[in-house]
């Protein structure tokens, strides 16, 4: 079954291009035929010429430069390419204005874009789900992306739709990023089945502290995001697939993690993360990797460095231990050597989870004997937990402060939304924050 | 790709504009090695061939600037038409008269504004029709004279009427205190009111600051330390490599303003890892409609001859952008309140350098309480000619307040005595109330900045959040 991706805005397109690169090179480097066949079927379309792989993707942006660059980069690497009729761009961008993306560009280009997605969907034998890649700080990804998600939800009511969001640097990338984030998240919460989040701050730290990259560029950041997503989306054996590679990754992702409509925010962490030069000198062991990953989950550290080993799950029935990160559900994906003999009971302890979901339901483990990327053993954890609570709270607090002084509001009102829409957005997100805060 | 049209009004506007077109051609010649008419070139130039109609991707036949040149006396425009840039303009883009405006805003705005209204609208419309997707008008004029300030602001309001959805970015050259035009305070204040009401963004530039920067560069170039040599054509004031010949006196200063315009549009024309369009600048830097005065600063002013760029020099570039010597008006943004700030980086600079510098400089800069992370960032991969990287900082900062207060003082000094007022009142359509309204508009603008300044340093408690019933 296939996944159709929609790349929206500059960030969505840049991340998407890296993602398809990772997926293609991983699929084709592997020795396993079955793995390759399924991965290629899932993300690529074989053209009539046979050798050419065309990504199952639709590229959308309101200005042409980024899409042109993505398409030419893909064609240059000659292993895969984007379909020639799967991109849509306009001449003038959305100006970092959510209202411009949502109220103006959305309705104006709805038909054309829906048609492109429909064409991609029809090329799939069976559709597992739709994945939208976007940022929340800008105008196109956030505004137009939200509008499109709404259209896709109407057009494909029985398919799963997940949104991958990139949150901007908290020290400021776009001045109105917090407004755009609030307006996007509030609506996506109703429309999307699951929201997978990467924060630029965290990925930047991974690049600098773990991967030792001196001059970090956006390609480095996007590559880390792409690798983490690849670790989730590539074929694996799930509990329901009974000895075959799972056919429906999006389906199983959503059903294992997003079991409650109030809890949809998913964070990703993976282990190990190290520069290629160090891999040859390191030995990996599953107990070591899983122990670190478990502590990363509990202490809410999104990377292997600076883990606080003092944090423990609370022993009593109390709601929050200090610094303890409670989970609603976790999905552990293990890839590589000796994957069948791994011991994952550390993740099954009931004290890690909320009381209303038994831990045997809350934890899902997927396994795949094919090593991913360059690591002999690697693990990815997709977690529905309080991990994103603090960043979300900061975003809402800053946006609220700005809203209290009505700064920039005239720019949004000009394009068709009102102060009511802002207030609705704030209310919806306060609800989400409250739900996560009171998780116990 | 979007197009922009440059409207240059008056002597100063046309001289700056002339430098702008020269440097634009130089920049595109540097980047566009194949001679193909690409989208980037299309943003400022159109490709004209008398034989066929030329679209994108074809060879460059003859470039015509997307510009409208307006002046009420012929000297400057004639000079342009006799110089090497004559091929770039055709006669339908020009509007001239013979007698000039006599340094009188009323003559420029009312007399000529009325007389030439149809022609101006016609020329603007023609320029706009040549554009596929017009994004912005760049208007360049001085504030102290008659044509620039008067007719220039009339053009501004015409643009708002005819093209309401296209953004209007004004580069306004403010007169220095020792300006030799006696009535420049009147002209400036009358024009300020128009700018506050009809422009989307204003980039104020002061002659004195430009002069200081030019002198600073000359001092560095002449008295350079042994072993460090400034590359001659890598200064922000150099026009070397362009079409026009030896430099004239104001050229160095005008080159700075031309570079400002090139840098502001660089991310819209060339690719980069974090693009910034013109409409994004207006969106992010204008929190309230009238507070749209953005103080520009350009760094580095010159590059040294050695090629390698240690990151300390890169960090120096960021620090300099907030230094009062690099601002294009005489102001000290570091000691005033920032409402918003945009950093547009060109060249070989990565996001980690940008983030590191923002984090480093942030504690030293006072930002308004509701916009503590008020940064808009843009990364363009194509550096300007002669530099390996450059930074344009646009600050919406209350440091413009002293400039405006001084302007009001100079206005009041003359107005109290009713000096030279009769020259204005003799003009048909001019009334004394326009003066009082203009200075009232300026005062209210100053008050708005004052209100924000008063909140500086005060820790405003966070607004109470919405509480959810549990």
Model description:
The complex is a heterodimer of chains A (440) and B (470). Helix content of chain A is 45%, strand content 18%. In chain A, strands 6-4-1-7-8-9-10-13-11-12 form a ten-stranded mixed beta sheet, sandwiched between helices. Chain A has a three-stranded mixed beta sheet with strand order 2-3-5. The mean pLDDT of chain A is 90. Chain A has helices at 9-29, 33-43, 64-77, 98-122, 140-155, 177-191, 200-210, 218-233, 249-257, 276-279, 286-298, 359-362, 389-404, 409-413, 419-437, and strands at 2-8, 44-46, 53-55, 57-61, 80-82, 87-89, 127-135, 160-167, 194-199, 265-271, 327-336, 363-368, 377-385. The longest helix of chain A is centred in the N-terminal third of the chain and has 25 residues, at 98-122. Chain A has 440 residues and is of the alpha/beta class. Chain A is globular. Chain B is of the alpha/beta class and 470 residues long. Chain B has 15 helices and 14 strands. Chain B has helices at residues 10-31, 39-42, 75-82, 105-115, 117-129, 147-162, 184-198, 207-222, 251-269, 278-285, 311-321, 351-361, 400-416, 421-425, 432-454; strands spanning 3-9, 45-47, 63-65, 67-71, 94-96, 134-142, 167-174, 201-206, 230-235, 295-299, 302-304, 338-347, 375-380, 389-397. In chain B, the strands form four sheets. Chain B has a six-stranded parallel beta sheet with strand order 5-4-1-6-7-8, sandwiched between helices. Chain B has a four-stranded mixed beta sheet with strand order 10-14-12-13, sandwiched between helices. In chain B, strands 2-3 form a two-stranded antiparallel sheet. Chain B starts with a strand and ends in a 16-residue tail after the last helix. The model of chain B has no long low-confidence stretch (mean pLDDT 86).
